[in-house]
Amino acid sequence: MDAPRTSPPATHGPRSGRPELATLTEDDLVTGEAVALDLPPAGLALRMGSGAVDVVVTLVALVVGAFTVLLAVSGGSGAVQGIGSVGLLVLVFLVLPTTVETLSRGRSLGKLCFGLRTVREDAGPISFQHAIVRSMIGFVEIYAFTGVPAFFSALLSSKGKRLGDYAAGTYVVRERVPLRLVPPPLMPPPLAAWASGADITALPTPLALAVRQYLSRSAGLDAGRRSALAEDLAGRVLTHVAPAPPPGTPPEAFLAAVVAERRERDARRLGREAALRARLVSRP
Fold first, then answer.
1. What is the DSSP secondary structure assignment for residue 125, as one 8-state letter?
2. CA 34 to mean position of chain CA atoms
3. What is the pLDDT of residues 204-214, one digit of tens each?
4. What are the angstrom distances between the C-alpha of 263 and each of 3, 34, 80, 195, 199?
5. 36: which strand partners?
C-alpha cells in the first residue's frame, strides 16, 4: 500500500489575497474518504538493482535458447540458422519481457525482488501496449548501448524514468511502503444534534481532500492563516449543507462536524448493505 500524501493544505496565491485549496498532483490517488495516496517513484539504486536481475535472467535465457537453437538447426542451411537466430533474439528480448510485464501487471522478476512495479502516468496498471514499447526501447538503451542511455535518463528524471518509460508513458513505483492514515476528525459534541438532522451532500473530491488536509494540519499553522483557511473552506462546504450550522459556530468545528457526519452515514449505509447481502445469502 502507498503512504498518504501530506502536502500542505493550501497556500496563498501570488495574485490573490484569498487562500487556495489544496490540489491533486500527478502522483496522487484518492480514496473514497478523500485521502490522497502517493505512489513514490523508485530511486535510481532500486532501478539499477532490479534491472541487473532482469539482465542476468535475460542473458541466461539467451544462452539456453542459443544452445537449443544450435542443436535444432545444426544440420540446416545458413538461411534456417539465420531465421533461428533472429527468432531467438525476438523471443528473448521482446516477447518474454512483454509477456511477463503484461501478465504480471507491471512486474518483472527484478521488480518483484525489489518491491517495484511499472504503472501508467495516471498510476494505473500497464497494458500490452505499454509493455511492448518498453521492451522495444529497452533493447536499444539497455542491451545495444550497455545501459548508458537508461542510466543517465533515470538519473536526470524526477521519477527515475528511462527512455522506454518516456516512450510508453509509464514510470516505476515502490510498492513496499507502509500505509499511514491520518486519524479521522471527531464530531464536536455541540454540533452532534445539528449534524444528525442536516442534509449533507457528498463533497467534490478536491474540496473534501482540502478539508481533510486542513483538519489534519491546522494545529501547525499560525493563527491568521488557520482562520483564513477555515473560513474559506467553510464557505465552500456550506453550499453542500442545509440548514446552516447554529450561529456563532467556529468554521473549523463546522468542517469537522461535516466530515465526521459524512463518515458516520457512509459507515451506516455500508453496514445496511452488508446485512442485506448476508440475509440474501443465508436464505435457503
1. B
2. 14
3. 888 888 888 88
4. 21, 11, 68, 12, 14
5. 30
